[in-house]
Design goal:
This protein is of the alpha+beta class. The chain has 9 helices and 21 strands. It has 2 domains: 233 residues, P-loop containing nucleotide triphosphate hydrolases (Rossmann fold); 130 residues, OB fold (Dihydrolipoamide Acetyltransferase, E2P), CATH 2.40.50.100.
């Protein structure tokens, strides 16, 4: 996937927007303050707004080019757009909402089969209900299903988690990861919650005051300090894609993972407190907050902390009242400690340290 916006500019009332970027990652997070221009960015890509100048290209298709007088209408861009408000038809059933896009897909190749989408999003039990009978998370799944059945080449999501509680947000995040893994369809996702975005992707586009101020890997962005007030370490979440080795105890409340399938190197244990079913050998995404990582120079011999992972310090960054230590343990782990602790322990680059993480601090994001 390659999406390029070259000097795309437009004015809306007294606000000016300019976007200049080329993107290739499969899932891309769009982050910034309210009113920064995130939704305008997606609207330009989708064709809901016409820029004043510049060009937009997706793979081999030119969406917009002011010099060539090209501006493909939204229905010819093959983009699925899931809005914050869902925009489901209230008088239609779930099934009728899902198949509504068939009116516009007669000449398209069918990549997303109706029954497969139902199964993927667990919508079989809701087909004959109306939107008002569904929960917020269920309505969001219907909106995602409708977007998929429009046979898109690209999916755009504008604040897909904003009206959902913590449990429902986790469900939608898991469904989006499942869609991306199953269909390999690229996604752009706006969210005001950086923790939610980082559970989906480590690649961020930061937008502020109508322009793209930086883009790249979240660790590089945080360490650069360029946008500390927008996307610094304070909103960071450690994310690991790992493989389940086995269960530690009989009731399946503790699981053992490694950084490679069937590897004997065990580096983390996760508490499956939400009864997520993870099987041996299954690829799994885990998350750990930096504040839940303890840094020590030696392992704790007699301790209940089950994860004690040796690594080498890559960087040490002080931001406001906290110190963030980036440790290479075969995977990158960011730990947040107090400045007083850093002054006392005096960690330095290339020091060998241990990252200590309690099992219950490790959360299962998704099992592939």
């Amino acid at each position: 996937m390659r999406l390029s916006l070259n000097d795309v500019s437009l004015s809306i009332e007294d606000k000016k927007f300019n976007y200049n970027i080329s993107l290739t990652d499969s899932i891309i997070g769009i982050f910034g303050f309210s009113g920064s221009g995130k939704t305008t960015f997606l609207n330009c890509i989708a064709g809901l707004l016409k820029p004043d100048s510049g060009s937009i290209r997706f793979n081999d298709t030119l969406f917009f080019d002011d010099n060539k007088n090209i501006n493909l209408p939204p229905n010819r861009r093959d983009i699925g757009f899931v809005f914050q408000e869902h925009f489901l038809f209230p008088h239609l059933t779930v099934k009728q909402n899902l198949v509504y896009s068939r009116l516009y897909t007669k000449d398209k190749s069918i990549h997303f089969n109706f029954d497969a989408v139902l199964s993927l999003l667990d919508l079989e039990d809701f087909l004959y209900q109306k939107p008002f009978q569904l929960s917020g998370g269920e309505r969001q799944r219907v909106a995602i299903g409708r977007a998929l059945l429009s046979q898109p080449r690209l999916l755009l999501f504008d604040e897909p988690f904003s009206n959902l509680d913590k449990t429902r947000r986790k469900e939608i995040i898991s469904y989006l990861l499942k869609i991306n893994a199953y269909y390999q369809i690229p996604m752009f996702i706006i969210s005001h919650d950086l923790e939610d975005i980082l559970k989906l992707t480590s690649y961020l586009v930061i937008i502020d005051k109508g322009t793209i101020v930086t883009a790249g890997n979240c660790i590089d962005i945080a360490e650069s300090g360029k946008v500390a007030g927008i996307a610094g370490y304070s909103a960071f979440t450690n994310i690991f894609d790992v493989y389940c080795i086995n269960q530690v105890n009989d009731d399946n409340t503790l699981l053992r993972f490694s950084d490679a399938a069937h590897s004997k190197k065990t580096f983390i244990c996760a508490a499956a407190s939400d009864h997520t079913i993870i099987s041996a050998g299954q690829k799994t995404r885990l998350s750990v907050l930096p504040e839940d990582v303890i840094i020590a120079r030696e392992p704790f011999i007699q301790s209940s902390i089950q994860n004690q992972i040796k690594g080498v310090v890559l960087t040490i960054t002080i931001v406001e009242q906290a110190c963030y230590i980036n440790v290479d343990c075969g995977i990158n782990i960011i730990a947040e400690i107090t400045i007083a602790a850093q002054q006392s322990l005096d960690f330095k680059k290339n020091d060998y340290v241990y990252c200590l993480i309690k099992a219950r601090a490790v959360k299962i994001v998704h099992g592939y």
